[in-house]
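Supplementary Methods, section 5.1.

A reviewer requested that the exact input to the structure prediction be made available. We therefore reproduce it here, unchanged from the version used in the analyses.
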Amino acid sequence: MDRSELHLTRDCDRETLRRRMSSGELVRLRRGAFVRKPSTEPGSAELRDKALLTLHAVESTLTAPHAFSHGSAALLWGLTLWRLPKYVHLRQAYRAGGMHSADVKRHIGLPDVAEVRQGVPVTTLSASVVDCVRSMPPLAGLVVADCALHHGLSRTRLACDIAEVVGTRGLARAKRILTIADAGAESPWETWVRFQVLQIGLPPPITQFPVEADGHTYRLDLYWPEHRVWLEFDGANKYDDNAYGSGKSGRQVLLEEKRREDEITSVLGVRPLRVMATASRHWPVLRSRILARFPEHVAQQAQPQPWMLAGSSDY
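The structure derived from this sequence is encoded token-by-token as follows.
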């Protein structure tokens, strides 16, 4: 994120600003803030940068003590989000007056401890995750919790902060998410796959299960050793040329993945069920395919978890 891309009305010559808007060079980010118009359709990184610039635009208007919180804090901490937050979230000592902004949500209560990230005050990492798992839909909250644990947040610290929450709103959900959060998830889609199998009512898998094969140590996304079931999330873009800056062609990556699968299969005696993001549009089919991999008695005993299907909240 380049903060020099943020143009505030208060810092610009009005006539120059008007001319740059008329020419299409700048577009409105929010009231009193503008950014350069993207030359191409923005990708996920560009949209994330835009969301961060919006936080800094809001910061420029604030005078009372505050700390960014919830999904806004998760952004500032560099955590992965299932989707970018619709609102900028703040903790303040009081509610806004009549001139409040429609794109800002204020939460009453300044934190006892705040930190500074990217030049602005923010709730601590653990407090930010607690706010997210209490207020977001279960999948979105789990994505944040998984990411935080993966990057070193202590589960004990998170549990202590959840235990100290005042009030009951979202508390039961937060405790449940903590029980299924897993530091082994390396992407939000890996979290999504695990979320689906847990929602079905299947037993928790082992994430990043190590397998020694032909002198290599491979790690499986999701594995149930007792049932010999192996699930992998297969992102189609990893087969693009130079995906993730690897310098490899898509064909090279595909061949390496095929060799990896063959070597693991020679040890485990089982091939993976590969799941792609497009499967989210055909969930009943995917559910049947997953259950079919398990012994019949395990599939029959699986009980869906209704709490994991809580409706999407406007966050």
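The CA atoms of residues 114 and 124 lie 6 Å apart. These observations are discussed further in the main text.
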